[in-house]
Amino acid sequence: MALLDENVRSEVERVFAELSGEVKLLVFTQEFECDYCAETRGLAEELAALSDKVEVETHDLLGSKALAEVYGIDKIPAIVVLGEGGKDYGIRFFGVPAGYEFSSLLEAIKVASTGDSGLSPEAKEALKGLRNPVHIQVFVTLTCPYCPMAVQLAHRCAVESELVRADMVEASEFPHLANRYGVYAVPKVVMNERVSFEGALPERAFIDYLLQAGS
Questions:
Q1: SS percent in the chain: helix, strand, coil, step 5
Q2: Side-chain half-sphere of 78: how many Cα atoms within 13 Å?
Q3: What CATH number is given for 121-213 in this structure?
């Protein structure tokens, strides 16, 4: 059964018509004990069927342990979005990117295709001051209309700086992480385990926190 209806497929085709470079989606899953693995894999495959510039590779987490370690995949379902030539921009999705987060997946594919973060010139200049790696985790729920703003901004920062990795984490699929980081409202952004905030912040304020986390 198709996950995307005809109207959504038409909109996706419109977005994908703007892709310039090829994009590969690495989907990590496993056969058992993953409630949303089938949906995540199916969603990626349906997207790939709508453009010859989008390819999907599916990997079993345990069977491809070495590859999972290369990309920092420690939970499933997971999607790694790679740009032209397998360029890893640090864009990750943990949990099915459905609901409001479907737009974040489309946007991630678009920016990975172009290699252009789309950040303002001021933001790009500010990120040049980053000296240490920053791991961003954006906790979301699929019914949160404000969460995609935080996810997409985090992913744009990852595209702009090789020192940034940005994860979307669907809170209800990983309750142990939600409990660990005290996720009581979304979006909840955690950077390098020590800097955190709630809400979808403007670009400059978000990057100020990022620079603090990388200091």
A1: 40, 20, 35
A2: 22
A3: 3.40.30.10
Q: Which residue in 81, 42, 61, 51 sits closest to 167, CA to CA?
A: 81
Q: How many helices (H) and strands (E) does the chain have?
A: 8, 8
Q: Write the pLDDT tens digit of every residue in 48-80.
A: 999 999 999 999 999 999 999 999 999 999 999
Q: How many residues does the chain have?
A: 215
- Read off the pTM: 0.96
Structure tokens given for 26 = 């690495």
Domain ranges of the chain: 20-114, 121-213
Beta strands per DSSP E along the chain = 23-29, 54-60, 78-82, 88-94, 134-140, 164-170, 188-191, 195-198
Q: Do domains 20-114 and 121-213 have the same CATH topology?
A: yes
- The CA R_g of the chain, rounded to the nearest whole Å, is 16
- Mean pLDDT of the residues in the chain: 95
What is the rounded distance in angstroms from the CA atom of residue 174 to the CA atom of residue 187?
A: 14
Name the CATH topology of 20-114: Glutaredoxin (3.40.30)
> For 83-192, where are the E strands, in sequence order?
88-94, 134-140, 164-170, 188-191
Non-local CB neighbours of 71 within 8 Å, separated by 6+ positions = 26, 80, 88, 92
More confident residue, 31 or 201: 201
